[in-house]
Task: structure prediction
Amino acid sequence: MRLFAYCLAAGALGVIATPPADGQQTPMVVTVVDDLSRRPLPNADVIDLESGRHRLTDEEGKVSLAWPANGILRLRVREVGYKPIERTLRLGDDMGGTTTTFGMSKVAYVLAPVLAKSRCASDADLAARLLAADVLEQLRQGAEKYEHFRRAYPFNLVLERRTALPRDTAPARIRTQREKFTSGGAETRYRPGRIVAGANSPLFSVPILFLSNLADPAFWENHCFVVRGFESLNGSRVVRLEFSPSTNVRGPDWEGAALLDSATSILQRVQFRVANLTGNRGPERIEGYTTYRSPSPYVVMPDTTVAIWWLRRARPRALWGDPEFGQMLHLYEMTYTRQKPPAAAPPLPTSSPPR
Result:
């Protein structure tokens, strides 16, 4: 029985491509920095709004762009945890047509009191819902950033899957296997109310709830989002964004919470459960969490997913007891097939999964 299929893609958000070279003009060098510290920001997304092309800044926060024939560059610069900036550059302006700097201001989350716990069901949650839109925009940026990253720096992965079987299963309770994937693999698209394949059978499967799902417009349209407040996670202050299926979703779908670092907007953890499982003949309950790592500054990808599930048993539903199965999928090894990205800081976690 396989519960999870590992998904690498972050949504079809376009292809990274280098603008066509123009030997007659000096390229424009764009530098992206933190507005206060002036520290360079690597992996900032520099978007040419006319062509739709995306470029990621290097370790020094720089990227080189060729001037188009009309001598006008309309750029939008984004970085996770910062407010986007748009600017129009014209060849021959005062900056000389060769360099410019974008100073980025950090996003600040300010929570208003939440008066109801109806998960978007009443106007009392309006303030929290408005704040949720800001947090969702950061999630969207994170999803798009990973998509561009995996195309610019392709890699191979080795994942370790550990499955805990029922006590009466021979020959062993823990089954371990390693699986290979590439960064070019396609993800399973989100389907409202149909996230469990084979929901009426013990031989079911569920794709990992990946970052791109949380930023998918279809996911937004079929879920309620609300920020519940701040909490502590591994010594860091995080903002909690809860999500649940809207009333039009009848079948199995995701509910849970995304936890983002309140200072950087970097996704730390996603807690999930499968809602609307009542009445099927397959799994009775599924829940778990995913943690994330940063292979390069301002880029996140799944590190470890843990899930447990119960099959239907002749017992009172209020007495769940221990789950029948548990599974952990851990990023064991990652190797780049071409150039390496800007170095991550702090260093990547070791390959040993959590205990």
